[in-house]
Amino acid sequence: MTETKLVAEKRAGRGKAEAKRMRRTKRVPAIIYGEIKEPIPISVDAHELDLLLKKSYSTIDIELDSKKHQVILRDIQRHPVNDTVLHVDFMQVKKGHKITMTVPVHFEGEAIGLKQGGVMDEVKRELEIAVLPKDIPEYIVANIENLNVGDAFRVKDLEAVNFEILDDPEDVLCRIEAPRVIATEAEGAEEEAMAEEEATEPEVITAKDKEEGESEG
């Protein structure tokens, strides 16, 4: 991914009232923290931020008071109903210094086991990595084409280029399970066998049952 730019302004006020005022003027409250002495409360243009969020990038150069802050987007708070961005956290980074972050995993290819009717069980869809800011991947690719029924794709099966994966190498990302229809049929056969077994069991007649039968006769 590449770098991108965003112009910001310092925020004088803080709190819900100030945040609402800014949103009315089409600005989004945000903060810069990380490789700086004190966090810097800022605001950014809502439209420019929306355009930025649609791009693929590794780092952002925030221009603030004639200075540049190289940051990564760390957190986005959105409105629960209309999905509007309410607040953004930017973390300042240093060139040449690795950072730790979470990156999504994308499964690619159609597994052999899926073609045979198997079912894919996705166990883990994110990984923690240590990476230089300039090398941050948008996602990590896990190619599952060669997986048969019963096979699992583990962290150690990934190709890590320009970053270090911090998760346990033995952690399972996904596995191809046996077709569920087979499991269902097996369960049905077992239930049928149990029913037949119950039907063939002899009825036990107690002395009391015998006496009651004779008295009725």
TrEMBL record:
Protein name in UniProt: Large ribosomal subunit protein bL25
Any Gene Ontology biological process: translation
Residue ranges of domain Large ribosomal subunit protein bL25 L25 in the record: 6-90
A molecular function GO annotation: structural constituent of ribosome
CDD domains xref list: Ribosomal_L25_TL5_CTC
Keyword match RNA-binding: yes
The protein's role, per its UniProt record: This is one of the proteins that binds to the 5S RNA in the ribosome where it forms part of the central protuberance.
Renumbered residue ranges of the record's region Disordered: 1-21, 187-217
Compositionally biased spans, kind Basic and acidic residues: 1-20
Quaternary assembly: Part of the 50S ribosomal subunit; part of the 5S rRNA/L5/L18/L25 subcomplex. Contacts the 5S rRNA. Binds to the 5S rRNA independently of L5 and L18.
Entry keyword set: Ribonucleoprotein, Ribosomal protein, RNA-binding, rRNA-binding
Residue ranges annotated for the Large ribosomal subunit protein bL25 beta domain, each copy included: 98-180
PANTHER family: RIBOSOMAL PROTEIN L25/GLN-TRNA SYNTHETASE, ANTI-CODON-BINDING DOMAIN-CONTAINING PROTEIN, RIBOSOMAL PROTEIN L25_GLN-TRNA SYNTHETASE, ANTI-CODON-BINDING DOMAIN-CONTAINING PROTEIN
Keyword presence, Ribonucleoprotein: yes
Provenance organism: Caldithrix abyssi
Ranges of biased composition (kind: Acidic residues): 187-201
One cellular-component annotation, GO: cytosolic large ribosomal subunit
Family according to the record: Belongs to the bacterial ribosomal protein bL25 family. CTC subfamily.
